[in-house]
Amino acid sequence: MTLTTLGRRSGTADGTDPGAPAPAPAPATTSAGPASDAPVRSTRSTRSTGSSRSSRDADALAVASFVLGLVGLLVMNILLGPAAIVMAVIALARSTARRGRALLGLALGVADLVVLAFLVTGNGAVGWSFSG
In a designed cystine with 62, which of 28, 81, 97, 101 is the match (CB 3.0 to 4.6 A)? Predict the structure, then answer.
């Protein structure tokens, strides 16, 4: 693709003097890229995008472990307790910014299992209800 401009001094399309010798042709480019040996840089930074995404994922896991541990104290502690523990451990392993929330989720997940153990020991069954 060639761009042409009008010359200031002469009326030729490429701005050269009609009496001057023709300029040397520009170096040809190949399908592999430009003829220069300069490295081609990407405009998108994958490092910063990847680390911020990992940080957001770890923060989301910390919050989810806290919520699951809290809800697990009331219902379905046999499922929500271990899920809260696993999510909290993964969030802590990924260096979450919400470390306190992940630790609370871990503690609540363990508390879910302790409540489950007391209920199973007291009732002799996994199920329980509010109406004694």
Answer: 101
Buried b / exposed e over 54-82, threshold 16 CB at 10 Å, is eeeebbebbbbbbbbbbebeeeebeebbb
Token pair belonging to 18: 């009609």
CA dihedral (104, 132, 119, 76) in degrees, to 10, reads -50
Question: pTM higher than 0.70, yes or no?
Answer: no
The neighbour count for residue 2, using CB atoms within 10 Å, is: 5
Give residue-wise pLDDT tens across range 67-123: 999 999 988 889 999 999 999 999 999 988 999 999 999 999 999 999 989 888 887
CA-CA distance, 74 to 55, in Å (whole number)? 30
